[in-house]
Every structure is written in structure tokens, then in C-alpha cells.
């Protein structure tokens, strides 16, 4: 009887010590992110990545880490590294094209590294030639290194020219 009781206690204690699965880790990261606990969210996502490198949640965890570093922590080099891992390890995942676009965007707009932005956008065009972001990539390539205010002013001038009535030619 004592042996059976000991066995049951051992089974329940071991069951309670099992590591969380990928889904649980991802949800923990999401909850921390929603609570604006960004370091805890990154830690949860990175724990998932290390424990379950082939999980269906792993690419989403890489994307979440990159997004936090880019948007909340403004650590652009770390964001580039996270997004680069996603693109290299999961090139066909739904978020990989967005990640590669964001790498180019950060190189151009945040890190002011025009050459790396040009290379990244060129890589995007090769990898994802039919992607919905192609227009945005072309726009970025055409405006590499330009100040955003300069781009807006040029677009406003173009819009004005397009709305001006055409002058009638005199015979």
C-alpha cells in the first residue's frame, strides 16, 4: 500500500514538473507582450525557439521577437538579427517576406545603411517576386537615402501636377 501511494505521489510530482509545450510558451510570450513586459515576452519566445526549434510556433516567435526589438525597444540591430533568423530558417513561412522587407526598411530608415538596404531589397525581389510588398520594395529602392519629408513633398508636387487641368492648345 505504501509503495502504491509513493508511486502515485511520484507520478503526480513528475507530471507537475514537465516542461511547457510550444503553444504554452507562445501564449506566455503573448501575455507578457500584451502586458508590455517586453523583456519577459522576449525571454518566453526565445525559450520556445531553443526548446522547440521545429515547432509551427517557432517562426511566429522569431517574428514576435523581431517586432518587439523594432517597435518597442528600438534595438534595430537585434530586430534585424531576429528577422534574419526567421527568413533563413523558415523562408517559406507566411511572415518571412514581411520580415525581410522590415530588415530592408530598418537598414534604410533607422540604421541609415543604404548599401545593406539595397542588398536586402534585392534579396527580397529574388526570393519573393510575386509578393504583395513588391510595390513597397520598389518604392523603397527608388527612395533609398532620401529624407521622408523630401519624399512627401515630391509626392505632393506629383499629385498637384496630375490634378491640374490640361491647358488647351491654341490653333
Arithmetic mean pLDDT: 88
- Please count the helical segments: 9
Assign the CATH class: Mainly Alpha
Strand content: under 5%
Model regions low in confidence, pLDDT < 50 over at least 5 residues = 3-15
The overall strand count is 0
Outline: elongated
Question: What is the fourth-level CATH superfamily?
Answer: Tetratricopeptide repeat domain
CATH fold descriptor? Serine Threonine Protein Phosphatase 5, Tetratricopeptide repeat
Strand count, sense and barrel status of the largest sheet are: none
Structural class call reads mainly alpha
Which CATH-level-2 architecture?
A: Alpha Horseshoe
Order of helices and strands: HHHHHHHHH
Radius of gyration, rounded? 24 Å
First-to-last CA distance:
113 Å
Helix content: over 70%
Count of discrete domains: 1
Short account of what is shown:
The chain is mainly alpha-helical. It is built from nine helices and no strands.
What secondary-structure arrangement, pairings included, does this model have?
Layout: H1 2-16, H2 22-34, H3 38-51, H4 58-72, H5 76-89, H6 96-110, H7 114-127, H8 134-142, H9 148-163
Helix pairs in contact: 2-3, 3-4, 4-5, 5-6, 6-7, 7-8
What does this structure look like?
The chain has 171 residues and is mostly helical. It has a single domain, classed as Serine Threonine Protein Phosphatase 5, Tetratricopeptide repeat (Alpha Horseshoe), CATH 1.25.40. It has nine helices and no strands.
Amino acid at each position: 500500500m505504501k509503495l502504491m501511494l509513493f508511486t502515485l505521489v511520484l507520478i503526480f510530482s513528475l507530471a507537475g514538473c514537465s516542461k511547457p509545450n510550444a503553444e504554452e510558451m507562445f501564449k506566455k510570450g503573448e501575455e507578457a507582450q500584451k502586458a508590455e513586459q517586453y523583456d519577459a515576452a522576449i525571454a518566453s519566445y526565445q525559450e520556445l525557439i531553443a526548446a522547440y526549434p521545429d515547432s509551427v510556433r517557432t517562426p511566429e516567435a522569431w517574428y514576435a521577437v523581431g517586432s518587439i526589438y523594432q517597435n518597442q525597444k528600438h534595438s534595430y540591430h537585434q530586430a534585424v538579427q531576429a528577422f534574419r533568423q526567421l527568413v533563413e530558417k523558415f523562408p517559406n513561412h507566411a511572415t518571412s517576406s514581411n520580415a525581410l522587407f522590415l530588415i530592408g526598411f530598418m537598414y534604410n530608415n533607422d540604421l541609415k545603411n543604404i548599401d545593406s538596404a539595397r542588398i536586402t531589397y534585392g534579396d527580397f525581389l529574388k526570393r519573393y517576386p510575386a509578393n504583395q510588398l513588391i510595390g513597397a520594395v520598389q518604392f523603397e529602392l527608388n527612395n533609398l537615402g532620401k529624407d521622408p519629408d523630401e519624399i512627401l513633398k515630391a509626392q505632393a508636387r506629383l499629385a498637384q501636377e496630375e490634378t491640374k487641368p490640361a491647358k488647351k492648345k491654341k490653333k
